[in-house]
Amino acid sequence: MRNAWLPLILWLTAVSSPGQQHAAPQTARQALLEIFMSQTPGALEKHLPESARRVLVHGGAGRENSVLQEFSSMRGQLLREGNEVQVFDDGPMLLVEEDKSDHERTEVLVEGDDLSSDEDTIEVSFHVYRDGQVVDLPVIPRVTFSMRLEDDIWRLNELTVALHVPLNDPEYLNGWRKRQDETAEARVVGAVRTVNTAEISYAAMYPERGFTCKLSELGGTNVAKEPSPDHAMLIDSSLAGGVWKGYVVTVTGCGAAPAAKYQVTAVPQDGSSGRHSFCSDETGVVRSAGDGTAASCLQTGAPIE
Question: pTM (2 decimals)?
Answer without folding.
Answer: 0.54
